[in-house]
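Async update (no meeting this week)

Hi team, since we skipped the sync, here's where things stand on the single-chain job. The sequence we agreed to prioritize is pasted below, unchanged from the tracker. I ran it this morning and attached the output directly underneath so nobody has to dig for it. Comments welcome in thread, and please keep replies under the output.
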Amino acid sequence: MAATSQFFPLSSSLQWKNRGTTSVTTTSSSINPQFKHKTPNLCSLQVFLSDPQTTATSDQQRTPSFPAPKEPTPRSSIWINPKSKISKEAILAQAGPPRLVRLTGLASSLDKSEPSDQAVSAILSAQTFPISEADAVLVIDNMTCAGNAVFALRWFLKNIVFNKKTILYNVTLKALRKTKNWPQVESLWDEMLASGTKPDSITFTTIISCARQCGMPAKAIEWFEKMLAFGCKPSKFTSSAMITAYWTVGQSEKALELYNQARSKKDQLFEGAFRSMISIYAKSGNFDAAMNVFEDMKALGVHPNLPTYNILLNAMHKAGRPWQVKTIYTEMRNNGMVPNRYTYVVAIRAYSKARYWRDALVLYQEMKAAGMGLDVILYNQLLAMCADVGLVKEAEEIFDEMKKLPVGSGPDSWSYSGIITAYCCSGQVLQAERMFNEMLDAGFKPTIFVLTSLIQCYGIAKQADDVVRVIDTLLERQIEPDDRFCGCLLSVAKNTPSEYLGKIIDCIDRVNPNVGSFVKVLLDENTSVQVFQERAKELLDSVSEVVRKPYCNCLIDICLKYERTQWARVLFDLAIQSEIYYNLQERQEKQWILQVKGLSSGAAFTAIHAWRDDVAEVLQKGEDLPPVLGIHTGHGKHVYGEKSLISVLKERLVEINAPFHEAPDKLGWLLTTDVAAKAWIEGTQKSELMFAV
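Output:
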């Protein structure tokens, strides 16, 4: 195992770019071209820390030796042997900071020079001090202008005798990699071979990583295979990176071969190989396979790092598995991992979408305490979550935090939509109106989403005239209403007192004449069954898929409110035939379940009525019922509703003497026995539902 070396900066007064105190191992395999944080470059250290005549090959461990301090050799960092009796101060005294200042200044001058061979040559030729091999490496290593770095390389090769030309080419290739200049990389490679310079593993690693950064996996593969032809052994870091490259170009068998090689060899068990496979499966949507690799990784004793956890968290978020996001996040924290900003963002998004509001708010507070700023998108997701679960106070606090952000980073129209929806859901009409006016004063135009929330709010408050005013605003501002907005008006209609219903129907007609005319047909006592069926099918076929179920829910509720029970059953049967409502009944040997989760109260009662008829038909045939019959309602409540579905159903079932009782140990379940159900059905006659919603 390579010994771990400690590098100390030469002078705290020298502000070297990307230089600092860090620990690295002195083998070429410790350099991962994927790492974003720069460590002292081993290409340079081959010259700086070892005698040029005795420098080991790039894949061997190097033992640093210190030359006599007659002409101080510039170096970016000094290796301090932990067992040495020589003090750090004594070694730093030999470094010669003035020379380093000149060399880094020279690199800066070359970067600013006109991009031409003549201009670069003029600057280098004008130097009054001799430039050594080590000096040339350091200068190019500190350059940021890749084109001028190539000109400097050519000047150095003409004017300096090199023992290790490979090192100079490597640092120049690294400069080209920074700018993703792939054509020049290939051109420099040709020059390198033409000069008789033999590439080493670092040469290929740099070129391969450049190809990957340029988004050219096929080129990365080409150079990876060329590397083997030149007898250079890839590090486990490079091999792991190539797993993704092979998979990207469709060579999945080769990718799996590299992965299995790393998995089967103990010295190649590298976290990056597993991370590559997890990332591949996650991007392809094979989330179960990603989890299997993760579990396999831990079983083999390889500990996931933070990037791997982040990839897996994001994969489970995309898969719609918030419970697994929570499990993985908890495991990560228990293993001592400190979340970074990406971790928090992914977890909060997953929790917000799933309405895990307690977990989301805890992470939100942690993120703030850690000084990590939230962007407006993340704030808006938190606001939407708070609105959906009725957390008005929390929504207000989040919105106030957004107002403290710098100009341009504060609340946007979506933010106002979220806080207005939070007020609307809780029936706080005045607060919603105040925030709506503040939104207009801030220069934001009202969106269809904000107006939808206001419509719902006024509908709950039975303020029909204000609903009309919102419709006037929408039409005056030429805001295009969508199917959701019209569905919102249908929801308002079912809750509007009959004396104001005409105003709401007129609003529906102004927004969507097709829906408005159908509601009029529904309420017309002279409408025939055939006409109603035809118009209902025509309407449901004309609206988008996402609103067909909400439309059916609202229309059935309106039917029952105005005692159009026959129309309610027609709509329900049509929804079953069109698979708008599906998988409502689940009959097994020991239980018969009716699933009404996601239905409105009227649609749920219509489903119970249809289910009762099915049960009665089974009894008429002389068949036995399962021992348990149950109705599953779920345990949530509608975002704008005051009661849960189960509480409404319990009241209505009592009215029709149905023997269902809430299960004390199962949330959202109403249960009865076969004996009780049989007695109930035999004691009643098959008839239409006679109750109002």
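Quick observations from my side:
The longest helix spans residues 601-620.
The mean pLDDT is 80.
Reply here if anything looks off.
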